[in-house]
């Protein structure tokens, strides 16, 4: 996973509630056996019409939002399925940070596994950021836990320390867990003694 | 301190507690299918890792599997075929038990876990699929994960996660005649909303749940994710034991006795406190159907399509406007006047034997409307076999419905069963999202009995009126 320290880039607002994972990544793209190349499929039905022609009114089809790195979204973003193809698509499009009043649990977790920072802020603050997202660049600093808006004003946010640490250092979750392999084995021995039917 | 069932399940699986708040949780069962595993195995190969252990993982193809009888000979879509072959190959390469498509045990991953007795009270169960919540019906802590976590589980048999909060949904009293477990969970989601359970694990308590069969409980827990919760739980009881006894992977002999003693301890302490509580009266719930593009857009079948102005919240108003446009519905139209083109009976929500019995009871001796294509898709080979033993297939065929092979089928259009743009479907599945059943397709979620009634009349229909005739 790539490190996440400071991200500067264009922010696009999609102020809709309950944007589900089927909208972020429709099912026909779940047949891939690769993680990459899904950027063209992100928000597919919103981006293209029935004839696969771009819809000019959709924000990510407009300049400078084609280069969006930060997405400002509505409540309950990413609800629905566990498909990691949704964050893979965002990442491949170039989005490394999503700011919203709330996220669905599995999606939230999947984003962090792929180096996408999810920032949860109260709705009024998200609305305020939405107003300022006119194509100018925002900066998200994970070290200082601050968003700097184009006019220089700052909004701070919170994140649990484990996630922050892992993102800042680009740590591989599996390698971290395997540091505890002795504890895992000890757990298994104890569980096997107490609940032998789990080990048939 | 008094504990909830969730607290107990969580605490009994903590391998390591991190200072940052995350814990390493041991996983007792990992269910895998073809859609969310290829990249996980690719990751293992790239980092030259193996499975931590192979005896707690099982693989079955389901999402891409066609529901037609010639599916063993041909799968037209090359991408589907590749994904299915990849699952088989990866399972072989890494030593995971694989249930092939021509095995009678094959079916939707959430149907086969319980059928094989792999799903047991007290276990932690994961799968790269959000409807893993289904298995909570047994008092197992079961939740969906993304592909990175699939890889993490394969490599370590653990997951690093934060503990959720406790939420209680209590439904007292008896469900009225004609109201099923599907109506119950739709009514709950209508009440709490799709984000109502976010950050929580829901425990269901009350007569309305204990009176349900295991199949009905699975339907409820299955759709818990539609209420935003990570997992749903129903404490194990006599029905749970009865269901499990004798299943292929259930413990036998002395091990069974020991397991039962442990399983009986799996319940919430009387004085345990939940972070959030909802109480609903069962007697008030009648058959439900969705009208919009989110499972929370749901109403009793006797209601009419709402207008955006009916909602107080401005977000909800704009959501409703978009939904109605997508669904092609006019506010004020009685829901039971909405015509349908297709009816789908199946999926991990309602593809079990009891669901097929309920649909067959409505269709028996009657005919499907000429304007409607009706697909009945058993959730597994064993469900199909049982249904055929009982003659249900004949009832469906005589009514003019199609009887298919086990698959996720039209729940999501990854296989050849899908809706065409503008087509409207009465569906027993779990998601009515835009494009879920096919681009431009319109989905109304309802129970198997309600779906059967819609097949007969060609429109959304209160099943109670059909049963009276
Ligand atoms: S039946 Fe539908 S919801 Fe269930 S596992 Fe298959 S695709 Fe997912």
Summarize the model shown:
The complex is a heterodimer of chains A (200) and B (469). Chain A is of the alpha/beta class.
Can you describe this structure?
The complex is a heterodimer of chains A (200) and B (469). Chain A is of the alpha/beta class and 200 residues long. Chain A folds into two domains: 6-169, Aconitase, domain 4 (Alpha-Beta Barrel), CATH 3.20.19.10; 173-200, no CATH class. Helices cover 32% and strands 17% of the residues of chain A. Chain A is built from eight helices and seven strands, in the order βααβαβαβαβββααα. Chain A has helices at residues 21-24, 44-47, 85-93, 105-113, 123-132, 161-169, 173-178, 181-194, and strands at residues 6-14, 68-73, 97-100, 117-120, 137-141, 146-148, 154-156. Chain A has a seven-stranded mixed β-sheet. Chain A is globular. The two termini of chain A are 37 Å apart. Chain B starts with a helix and ends with a helix. Chain B has a five-stranded parallel β-sheet, sandwiched between helices. Chain B has a five-stranded parallel β-sheet with strand order 17-16-15-18-19. The model of chain B has no long low-confidence stretch (mean pLDDT 96). The longest helix of chain B has 17 residues, at 78-94. Chain B has 469 residues and is of the alpha/beta class. Chain B is globular and about 55 Å long. Helices cover 33% and strands 16% of the residues of chain B. In chain B, helix 3 (78-94) links the parallel strand 4 (57-59) and strand 5 (97-98). Classes of the chains: A alpha/beta (200), B alpha/beta (469). At the A-B interface, helix 4, helix 6, helix 7 and helix 8 of A face helix 2, helix 3, helix 5, strand 8 and helix 10 of B. The complex binds iron/sulfur cluster (SF4).
| Oligomeric description of these chains | heterodimer
Spatial strand sequence of the major β-sheet of chain B: 5-4-3-6-7
Radius of gyration of chain A: 19 Å
The CATH class label of the largest domain in chain A is: Alpha Beta
What is the terminal separation of chain B in angstroms? 55 Å
- What percent of residues of chain B are in strands? 15-25%
Form type of chain A: globular
| Low-confidence regions of chain A | none
What kind of sheet is the major sheet of chain B?
Answer: 5 strands, parallel
Ends distance of chain A: 37 Å
Structural class of chain A: alpha/beta
């Amino acid at each position: 996973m790539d490190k996440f320290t400071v991200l500067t880039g264009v922010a696009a607002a999609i102020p809709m509630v309950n944007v589900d994972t089927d909208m972020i990544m429709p099912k026909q793209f779940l047949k891939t056996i690769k993680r990459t190349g899904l950027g063209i499929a992100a928000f597919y039905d919103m981006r293209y019409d029935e004839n696969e022609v771009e819809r000019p009114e959709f924000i990510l089809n407009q300049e400078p939002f084609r280069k969006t790195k930060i997405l400002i979204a509505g409540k309950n973003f990413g609800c629905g399925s566990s498909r990691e193809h949704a964050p893979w698509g965002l990442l491949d499009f170039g989005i490394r940070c999503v700011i919203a009043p709330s996220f669905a649990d599995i999606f939230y977790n999947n984003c962090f596994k792929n180096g996408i920072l999810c920032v949860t802020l109260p709705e009024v603050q998200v609305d305020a950021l939405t107003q300022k997202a006119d194509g100018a660049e925002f900066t998200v600093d994970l070290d200082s836990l601050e968003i700097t808006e184009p006019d220089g004003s700052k909004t701070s946010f919170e994140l649990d320390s484990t996630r922050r640490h892992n993102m800042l250092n680009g740590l591989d979750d599996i390698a971290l867990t395997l540091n505890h392999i002795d504890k895992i084995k000890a757990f298994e021995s104890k569980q096997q003694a107490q609940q032998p039917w789990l080990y048939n | 301190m008094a504990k909830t069932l969730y607290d107990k399940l969580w605490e009994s699986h903590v391998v390591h507690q991190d200072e940052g708040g995350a814990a390493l949780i041991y996983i007792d069962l990992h269910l895998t299918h073809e859609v969310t595993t290829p990249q996980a195995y690719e990751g293992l190969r790239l980092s030259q890792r193996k499975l931590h252990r192979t005896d707690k993982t099982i693989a079955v193809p389901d999402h891409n599997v066609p529901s037609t009888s010639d599916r063993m000979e041909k799968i037209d879509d090359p991408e589907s075929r590749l994904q299915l072959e990849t699952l088989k190959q990866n399972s072989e390469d890494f030593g995971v038990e694989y249930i092939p498509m021509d095995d009678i045990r094959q079916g939707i991953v959430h149907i086969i876990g319980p059928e094989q007795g792999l799903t047991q009270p007290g276990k932690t169960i994961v799968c790269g699929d959000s409807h893993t919540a289904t298995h909570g019906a047994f008092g197992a802590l079961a939740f969906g994960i993304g592909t990175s976590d699939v890889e993490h589980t394969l490599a370590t048999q653990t997951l690093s996660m934060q503990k959720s909060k406790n939420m209680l949904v209590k439904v007292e009293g008896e469900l009225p005649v004609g109201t099923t477990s599907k109506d119950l969970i739709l009514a709950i989601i209508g009440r709490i909303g799709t984000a109502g359970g976010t950050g929580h694990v829901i425990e269901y308590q009350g007569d309305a749940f204990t009176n349900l069969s295991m199949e009905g409980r699975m339907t409820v827990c299955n759709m818990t994710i539609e209420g935003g919760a990570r997992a749903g739980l129903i404490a194990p009881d006599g029905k749970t034991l009865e269901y499990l006894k004798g299943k292929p992977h259930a413990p036998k002999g002395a091990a069974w006795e020991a397991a039962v003693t442990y399983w009986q301890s799996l319940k919430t302490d009387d004085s345990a406190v939940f972070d959030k509580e909802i109480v609903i009266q069962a007697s008030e719930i009648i058959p439900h159907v969705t009208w919009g593009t989110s499972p929370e857009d749901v109403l009793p079948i006797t209601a009419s399509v709402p207008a955006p102005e009916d909602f107080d919240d401005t977000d909800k108003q704009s959501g409703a406007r978009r939904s109605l446009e997508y669904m092609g519905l006019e506010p004020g139209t009685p829901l039971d006047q909405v015509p349908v083109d297709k009816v789908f009976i199946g999926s991990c929500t309602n593809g079990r034997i009891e669901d097929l019995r309920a649909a067959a009871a409505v269709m028996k001796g009657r005919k499907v409307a000429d304007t409607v294509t009706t697909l009945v898709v058993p959730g597994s080979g064993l469900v199909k076999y049982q249904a055929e033993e009982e003659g249900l297939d004949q009832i469906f065929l005589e009514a003019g419905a199609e009887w298919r092979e086990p698959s996720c089928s039209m729940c999501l259009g990854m296989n050849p069963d899908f809706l065409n743009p503008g087509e409207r479907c009465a569906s027993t599945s779990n998601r009515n999202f835009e494009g879920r059943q096919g681009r431009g397709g319109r989905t109304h979620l309802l129970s198997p009995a309600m779906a059967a009634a819609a097949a007969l009349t060609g429109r959304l229909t209160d099943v109670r009126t059909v049963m009276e005739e």
